[in-house]
Amino acid sequence: MSIVQFTRRYFLRLMALTTAGIIVGCKDDEGEDNLPKPADIYDNYRSAIVIGSGFGGAVSALRLGEAGIQTTVLERGKWWKVKPEGDTFSDLVVPDNRSTWLGTESIAPIGLKVDFPEKHVGVLERIQYDEIDVYGGACVGGGSVVYGGITIAPEESLFQRVFPSEIDYNELNSTYFPRVIQMLDAKPIPDDLLNDSPFFQFVRTSVEQAKKIGLPIEYFASVFDWDIIKQEIAGEKTPAAIEGEILYGVNSGAKKSLDTNYLPAAEATGHVTIEALHQVRDIEQLEDGIYKINVEVLNEQGEIIEEKAFHCTYLFMGAGSVGTTRLLMRSKEKGLLPNINDTLGTGWGSNGTTMGSRSNLSEITGAKQSSPSSSAAYDFNNSVAPTVLDMANLPLGFDCNCLIYLGLTLDENRGVFEYDPSIDDIKLNWSNNGVPKAALEDVFNRLNAANGGENGVFALPEVKDNLTYHPLGGAVMGETCDFYGRVKNYSNLFVMDGALIPGSAACANPSLTIAGIAERNIEKIIEKDIVV
Ligand code: FAE
């Protein structure tokens, strides 16, 4: 039994309904949850609503469903189900509008630019702020549909430099990270692909070169299904991962995104419904403590075809760093959630992300490069700042004797969002401090000195530090929220996603950290906050 802080008015209303026999406070024969349901008062009432279906949202939905709590997930994007024909998602090289969230041109940072005749609710979103482009997923499964599948934990000493001491690294590492890895079924690259396959020559070369300058290597867990990749190589499946598909989804089904594990498992509890193409506009807490969520139902061109309101007792924010911050700031500024404190919108970081390349190498890197990144090199003694290099693929179709890397640097640079009423949206004030770029160039210089080669390749001539795939922060733990994601000054309102993370995942790609912390938090919230 746990605590819920009803307002007096809500309590009295519930008492009246209970006395009148309208609300039953125990599990019924159909196994419906026994939370109070003022169903005669509100249309579309759910005990719990989760906004967004990425890592924070999917973890929340599954665990709420398992606890028997009637839950609806509201996701603005579409549910892309991989078809056996192998043509679910846009082509990587010549993208079509399935690639892009409501845009008129393709948005990938590298590659061909293509114009689209009409907008579509495509999978990848780019938000352009003054000094940085922020990328994210916009579909059922959120970032997991467009991501690289890298499932890696931060190193402990770096984690402790970024995260508050209230977050116990050992607890995450021993309980919650393994729980996520098991659900995702994430596994390191198998030896036969690593050692022998021409599709992974780039890994062998990049690892050997990093070892020459003494960098430790990790072959991390990936959510890519290595057996499907073998089937692709054998010609038994649509060639997709082996063609470099990542960004717009993987047509062979080789990427085990959240729409193939957490989300169907949540639905299978019988207590969770996923509503795709339901874009939340804003959120209001009513006088009785119930949350009213105003929703725009979209068609596949992104036009609003219906407006709806949902109501719930427990509201879980999983719309991602920008999405959650936007919804909370918009609602606060409109007086709908006025009591959120003024730290909202602060503490945003890019996770120190850079992207860079090296070319003119004497070693081959492979004409065929399969997409899953499988290894990282740790450069914690970097003279600028600790940096992790993800060895990525550059599927150009010929051997370019070049390598591409994603750099993740421990960077204290933070930005602040402000709400602009003229656009009813948030703007990011973030200035590039040059640290992540200098750190990547520092390690490139050492790699070039030991192995030969030079920085840059025609497809990516300079180190890019004006984009991030890893937006973090905006409603940060210990500031806007407590250390379990409870929004301060509100009951039953929780932030479960990247908005809660303090601007950096300590040189790790962030999905495992976000999902692990969400697993930790939802366990506590179900135990302490929800009446069952
Ligand atoms: P996220 O997964 O972004 O989900 C938010 C969801 O909320 C999305 O589905 C949105 O459509 C939805 N949403 C937003 N606004 C609304 C609204 N108003 N109403 C309804 N729904 C809404 O949030 N991380 C790794 O760890 N490993 C990788 O290999 C990796 N590669 C990446 C590659 C790319 C190209 C990108 C873009 C990201 C990559 N990431 C990677 C980052 C990772 O995807 C990201 O940190 C997580 O997905 C963030 O999880 P959240 O739960 O915060």
Oligomer: single chain
By DSSP, the count of extended strands is 20
Bound molecules: flavin-N7 protonated-adenine dinucleotide
Strand content: 15-25%
Rg: 23 Å
Q: What is the average of the pLDDT values? A: 93
Compute the separation of the termini in Å: 7 Å
Approximately how much helix is present in the residues? 25-40%
Parts with pLDDT < 50 across at least 5 consecutive residues: 1-31
Please identify the structural class as seen in this structure. Answer: alpha/beta
Most strands sheet: 7 strands, mixed
Count of helices?
12
Can you describe this structure?
- It is a single chain.
- With 532 residues, this protein is of the alpha/beta class.
- It has a domain at 1-41.
- Helix content is 25%, strand content 20%.
- The strands form five sheets. Strands 1, 2, 8, 9, 10, 11 and 20 form a seven-stranded mixed sheet that branches. A six-stranded antiparallel sheet has the order 6-13-14-15-12-18, with helices on one face.
- A hairpin with a 5-residue loop joins strand 10 (291-298) and strand 11 (304-317).
- Helix 2 (55-66) runs parallel beside helix 9 (262-268), helix 2 packs parallel to helix 12 (511-528) and helix 5 packs across helix 12 (511-528).
- It starts with 7 loop residues before the first helix and ends with a helix.
- Mean pLDDT is 93; it is low at 1-31.
- The structure holds flavin-N7 protonated-adenine dinucleotide.
